[in-house]
MFS family permease
Amino acid sequence: MKAMFRSLGLFNYRVWFIGALVSNIGGWMQSTAQDWVVLTELTDNNATAMGVTMALQFGPPLVLVGATGWVADRFDRRKILFATQGVLLLLAIAVGVLLLMDVMTLPLMFGFALLFGIANAFDSPARQAFVTDVVSRENASNAVALNSASFNMARLIGPAVGGVLIVVVGTGWVFIINAATFLAMLVALFMMRTDELVPRVRATGAQRIADGFRYVWRRPDLRVTFVIVFIVGAFGMNFPIFASTMALEFGRDADGYGLLSSVLAIGSLAGALLAARRERARMRVIMFAAGGFGVASLVSSVMPTYLLYALLLTSVGFFTVTMMTTANGYVQTTTDVAVRGRVMAVYMAVIMGSTPFGAPIAGWVAEQFGPRAAIQLGGVAGLVACAIGLGWLMFSGRLHRDPEHRFRLTVDETQPIWVVRTPPEEFSDEIAATTPIRVPSDR
């Protein structure tokens, strides 16, 4: 148990964890309100419009990936987060006021979704990479998993509270309340002891924007990881569309939708906590979790009652977060610190960029053929992603027969790959004789 929460022994990480938890609860409340506004207030249960809103919100990280990754590596991530969290706070207030004044329209909501997406495009890679500024490398995997646990604790609380608040006070006030929760993150960033942050290598020069892409391209294991995450993210992780349309199919209101999102988070939280127990993030866990997600989704799609569907969602959430948390930890712990921000920007672009690709398709399928068909599409995507991962593993040369056990197979583990550069203008025979060279086995 102590090993599971070891990162919380650090003051900076405790402050970060609490601030992120409060902010994420507000974020899930707002997400629930936004989806319900588009689906029931601005349209007549139009799932396609909901998919377009998600595409606009999650598209900017894909378009701006080069710039956002470079910014995350070039500048102080703590200051970046001060700026992005402040912008998100102001946007939430603006949407809340327009809803309270009853002047919000669907085009306006599309515009705000785009602005939220642009702000999050800069916030997400900085936030993901900032974890390794707060904790040392040996605690990075644990810290990433606990971050996921915090996110999913918020996912457990936020949608349920948001659904109730929509019924009690209306969607506009939910946005205003979320704006207040951003203050928790700003206070946490202010309280951090800057002298205890882990020193990091900063990139210099705009010519290195493409380094994150090159680094990922040279790593077949990362390419396969990104493909798995993209496929499942595009077709399987459109939970706002699935949960809201299934809630309507079962005759439930906003509180029923919020409850489904919270039930999904129960399994998600369990997956995150189990990931925190693992000493190392492994590729095979990512693959099997994608397959488990596919099976759980297909089974949930045929459940005849609201209660049974909700129960199956716990398994869907468990496999989803196991896959995503392990993939996040794997990318961070096997990537060189000098390009980690840009690699994480590529990773976040894959996750968020999958939504603009898949959400409109899932929304259209749900509208034309029903929500169960859309869920089944996501389930098949999970099985395909698992098959791709297993196929790569079998032909990559990493899978071997254990010489000590006749029927046991072993998989070669990935070690961190380092990029070591010395700028030409700083290189000399004297420096070459004294500069240490990083070796993976020493890390």
Observations:
- The chain is about 75% helix and 0% strand.
- The chain has a mean pLDDT of 80.
